[in-house]
Amino acid sequence: MSDVHDTSQNVRVRRCETGDDVARAAAAAFVEAVVAAQHARGRASVVLTGGGTGIAVLDAVLRAPGGIDWSAVDVYFGDERYLPPGDPERNEVQARAALLDHVPLDPARVHAMPTLDEAGAGSPDSAARTYEEVLAANSPDGTTPEFDVHLLGMGGEGHINSLFPHTDAVREQDRFVVGVEDSPKPPAARVTLTLPAIRRARQVWLLVTGAAKAEAVAAAVGGAAPVDVPAAGARGREQTVWFLDAEAAAALPAD
């Protein structure tokens, strides 16, 4: 593994050989960041992502949790499929199976996005507004928490959370959570944190594997417009880290 630093934007690229290496490296860094936050502030606040690599990171954390005090961790989600409770396609359900149900978290500090049933006759937008209220209630300034780590996956076209290219959601500059009715990736109905919410995180980590994503990685790291490549707009207040396998990093300049 090698690190490449872009000090002008506080961006680091961590190149790993395989997807398994990405999961292990990100998991080790996650444990370190959570423990450091707890030492500094008495608690840690994290945003989880779904997808194969995101869930693999949670699996790896479960195998080597280090010194995390799980009772002092607040868990949020970057996006969610607007489906009934318990649906196996929900990121929350997958995260619980991989990690959350196996560690002594305070249930009140696992902040899942509303389900289809919980919203009743509502909509993704009403669910988004409900989640904005959750964020505000857990923020010192009544807006959204300053997350310690926000994990992100990325699609082949550069989408993150449920922020897809050339959509209203990726253009949103005022709200922290929005509903999506027409996701190009099924299911169409989703709830997602926006770029302003992502940018509240101290650290933003993008977990990307596979050759199909190499061009989008290069575009995002190279400073593409976020409306074209949403991942380009994912920036942490202190640091942004790309965890890449060899295939995903193939279009980046050599060290």
TrEMBL record:
Biological or metabolic pathway of the protein: Carbohydrate degradation; pentose phosphate pathway; D-ribulose 5-phosphate from D-glucose 6-phosphate (oxidative stage): step 2/3
Annotated EC: 3.1.1.31
GO molecular function: 6-phosphogluconolactonase activity
Residue intervals of the Glucosamine/galactosamine-6-phosphate isomerase domain: 18-242
Transmembrane portions of the chain: none
Protein name: 6-phosphogluconolactonase
UniProt similarity note: Belongs to the glucosamine/galactosamine-6-phosphate isomerase family. 6-phosphogluconolactonase subfamily.
InterPro entries: 6-phosphogluconolactonase_DevB (IPR005900), 6PGL (IPR039104), Glc/Gal-6P_isomerase (IPR006148), NagB/RpiA_transferase-like (IPR037171)
Catalytic activity: 6-phospho-D-glucono-1,5-lactone + H2O = 6-phospho-D-gluconate + H(+)
Gene Ontology process terms (BP): carbohydrate metabolic process; pentose-phosphate shunt
Keyword Hydrolase among UniProt keywords: yes
UniProt keyword list: Hydrolase
Record lineage: Bacteria, Bacillati, Actinomycetota, Actinomycetes, Mycobacteriales
Known role: Hydrolysis of 6-phosphogluconolactone to 6-phosphogluconate.
CDD domains: 6PGL
EC category name: hydrolase
